[in-house]
């Protein structure tokens, strides 16, 4: 089958046989959260005391009353079966970065040949999935299979539908039988509680009432690629690794800059609409969709939610995108760098803090009081990022994200903060004590009770910054498109809690010493900014000058690869930080470090062996076949002779590189997992690059009918 036929086939075969009619606009509002067991829905199904008790757990973090579990379980089962669910599952997030589920039927035999639907409070609160095959990083031996899932009431249950039915999904945490967290959700919940404990005392000093609760909020933008399903299965590298291990650059890529925000192709728009309707039913507030920079690349973005719920929703967004794409003859690629030479995909985490009354603590505001509060919490974030650059880098570390960080679509591995020119100027003036710029612009004097209005958009956006202030939130741009956002948010919550706690102690000491609030805040903001402004950078994060300045003059870390960053996770100060706030124990941190090494090694090891297999069984035979065709032509021709010489030389070059890769694939580098990880980084990845370079040059000279892989020209342009 030649590739011309492939192109025609891929263009034809996407159509859905019987596309579902799209609901009218007014129905979309009714659809939203229709497959979510909301508190409002539970209110109609529970007694007032039971509902009040559950609501206190969900909204104020009070301990769950086990006495209400049976009534909640009955309401949940009844609602789910009304929605068509036949099974339920504890839905959790193990340390694979994905989600996991074990389905159980509501139907139970009653002993007389009949069956009835049952679901008890005990089954709701706790389950015991086999934990032996999930990563534990040494928290338990392989033969110790016991693990527990426990209901998380703060994240609502929901219905996941499939072609022949539906399942009730109950968000849960996952722990070992000795109590260590084996998941991403548990430390996220702990970090949220830590942030609340740290921030509320500060708010009280600013006049907030007792009982105020604080949590982090998040909106995570998801980038992804779409390619034709037919081509996907013709690329063993995409099937096995999620990225193309071979592929010469096409004549046209993203250099015309005409794809970004361009008209969305009809097939893609149909897919997007279908996916969005499913997400609406799951209560996921997706707001934005558009073409991204690279051909075949797109983005979907929800609006703010509580971070715990947002993390659950991010996992669901990835699942729905992957599942829905197949209905349209497409495959959704979530790898950070599926195509070399074009933009990769990230997951920008827009993070802020908010009270239970809806007040955004990173909103500059219009009044002096709001300005003071904003500058205090903004300074805490600056302090947190400067002191814990390593943890932020570790939180986005992976073999796949290493291909993206530092490229032209992603921030560098150096963690810095973009504040914008006006906000930076305000802080610079506070630091120098110069005061303001006239009453129209706002009078800014250290300790003055009249602070200027701080614009929400205090400067242009900076796409090269890994951590940018964007009006009323910080955008952490370094997260990878395929990763769970739970750990990056856990880190953010924890380091900001630490910074706020420290600044609050300073503020209280000044107030107890007789200082007025605005003077005390001004002094703290000035001192904090002076100590930590080295991390503030509003320029071009890609420039070589910045890299030199950051490392040599400012002393910032440049942990270029994941293996440069991961060892710092268990540094004594990091263990002390997480243990101080009860987020992760030293043992849990060591386990996560071990798992990160293990996943890194296995990822690159699979890529190395896949590269070897494709080169040996597909590309070398293709080159040999083309050489045989050239040799079969008996007519003297300088063009044929030159082509044959070039192909033969590249084939030998590919063969030699392949021998080196084969040797490195078999040399594991040591017995310890960190030794294996370093081996594949230092030896397998370079050997893979050499094989690819020879193969990609061959792609440009071997006849199309011989080349065994769909090319970038065919893969990237989805219509």
Automatic annotation (TrEMBL):
Q: Which residues form the GS catalytic domain?
A: 184-619
SUPFAM superfamilies given in the database record? Glutamine synthetase/guanido kinase
Question: Which Gene Ontology molecular-function terms are recorded?
Answer: glutamine synthetase activity
The GS beta-grasp domain is annotated at 86-179
Q: Pfam families, per this entry? A: Gln-synt_C, Gln-synt_C-ter, GSIII_N
Task: Check the record and name the InterPro entries matching this protein.
Answer: Gln-synt_C (IPR040577), Gln_synt_N (IPR008147), Gln_synth/guanido_kin_cat_dom (IPR014746), Gln_synth_cat_dom (IPR008146), Gln_synth_gly_rich_site (IPR027303), GS_Type-3 (IPR052725), GSIII_N (IPR022147)
Protein name, per record: Glutamine synthetase
- Species this chain originates from: Deinococcus phoenicis
What is the phylogenetic placement of the source species in the record? Bacteria, Thermotogati, Deinococcota, Deinococci, Deinococcales
């Amino acid at each position: 089958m030649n590739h011309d036929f492939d192109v025609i086939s891929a263009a034809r075969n996407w159509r859905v046989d019987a596309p579902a009619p799209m609901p009218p606009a007014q129905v979309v509002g009714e659809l939203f959260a229709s497959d979510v067991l909301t508190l409002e829905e539970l209110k109609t199904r529970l007694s007032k005391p039971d509902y009040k008790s559950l609501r206190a757990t969900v909204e104020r973090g009070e301990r769950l009353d086990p006495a209400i579990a049976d009534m909640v379980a009955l309401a949940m089962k009844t609602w789910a079966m009304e929605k068509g669910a036949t099974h339920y599952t504890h839905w959790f997030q193990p340390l694979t970065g994905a989600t996991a589920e074990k389905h159980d039927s509501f139907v139970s035999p009653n002993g007389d040949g009949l069956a009835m639907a049952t679901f008890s409070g005990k089954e709701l609160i706790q389950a015991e999935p086999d934990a032996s095959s999930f990563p534990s990083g040494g928290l338990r031996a392989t033969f110790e299979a016991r693990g527990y899932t426990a209901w998380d009431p703060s994240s609502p249950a929901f219905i996941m539908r499939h072609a022949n039915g539906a399942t009730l999904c109950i968000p849960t945490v996952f722990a070992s039988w000795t109590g260590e967290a084996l998941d991403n959700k548990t430390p996220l919940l702990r970090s949220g509680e830590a942030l609340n404990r740290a921030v509320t005392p500060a708010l009280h000093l600013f006049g907030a009432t007792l009982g105020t609760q604080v949590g982090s909020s998040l909106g995570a933008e998801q980038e992804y690629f779409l390619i034709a399903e037919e081509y996907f299965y013709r690329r063993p590298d995409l099937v096995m690794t999620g990225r193309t291990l071979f592929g010469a650059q096409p004549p046209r890529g993203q250099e015309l800059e005409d794809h970004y925000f361009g008209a969305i192709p009809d097939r893609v728009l149909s897919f997007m609409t279908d996916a969005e309707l499913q997400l609406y039913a799951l209560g996921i507030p997706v707001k934005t969709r558009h073409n991204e920079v690279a051909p075949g690349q797109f983005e979907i973005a929800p609006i703010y939610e509580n971070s715990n719920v947002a993390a659950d929703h991010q996992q669901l967004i990835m699942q729905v995108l992957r599942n829905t794409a197949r209905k349209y003859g497409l495959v959704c690629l979530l790898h950070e760098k599926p195509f070399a030479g074009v933009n990769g995909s990230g997951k920008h985490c827009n993070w802020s803090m908010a009270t239970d009354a809806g007040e955004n603590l990173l909103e500059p505001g219009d009044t002096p009081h709001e300005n003071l509060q904003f500058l205090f919490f903004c300074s805490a974030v600056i302090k947190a990022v400067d002191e814990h650059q390593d943890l932020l880098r570790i939180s986005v570390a992976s073999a796949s994200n290493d291909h993206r960080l530092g490229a032209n679509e992603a921030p560098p591995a150096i963690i810095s903060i973009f504040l914008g020119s006006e906000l930076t100027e305000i802080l610079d003036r506070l630091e120098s004590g110069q005061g303001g710029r006239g009453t129209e612009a706002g009078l800014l004097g250290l300790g003055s009770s009249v602070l200027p209005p701080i614009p929400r958009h205090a400067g242009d956006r900076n796409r090269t910054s890994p951590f940018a202030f964007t009006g009323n939130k910080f955008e952490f741009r370094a997260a990878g498109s395929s990763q769970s956002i739970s750990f990056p948010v856990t880190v953010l919550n924890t380091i900001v809690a630490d910074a706020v706690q420290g600044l609050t102690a300073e503020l209280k000491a000044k107030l107890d010493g007789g200082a007025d609030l605005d003077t005390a805040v001004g002094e703290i903001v000035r001192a904090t900014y002076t100590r930590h402004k080295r991390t503030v950078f509003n320029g071009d994060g890609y420039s070589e000058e910045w890299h030199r300045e950051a490392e040599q003059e400012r002393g910032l870390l440049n942990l270029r690869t994941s293996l440069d960053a991961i060892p710092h996770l268990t540094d004594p100060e990091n263990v002390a930080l997480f243990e101080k706030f009860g987020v992760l124990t030293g043992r849990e941190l060591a386990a996560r470090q071990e798992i990160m090494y293990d996943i890194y090694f296995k990822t690159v090891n699979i890529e190395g062996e896949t590269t070897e297999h494709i080169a040996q069984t597909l590309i070398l035979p293709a080159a040999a076949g083309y050489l045989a065709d050239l040799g079969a032509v008996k007519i003297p021709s300088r063009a044929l002779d030159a082509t044959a010489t070039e192909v033969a030389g590249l084939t030998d070059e590919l063969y030699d590189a392949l021998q080196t890769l084969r040797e490195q694939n078999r040399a594991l580098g040591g017995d310890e997992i960190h030794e294996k990880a370093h081996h594949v980084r230092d030896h397998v990845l370079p050997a893979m690059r050499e094989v690819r370079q020879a193969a990609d040059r061959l792609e440009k000279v071997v006849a199309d009918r011989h080349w065994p892989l769909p090319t970038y020209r065919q893969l990237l342009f989805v219509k």
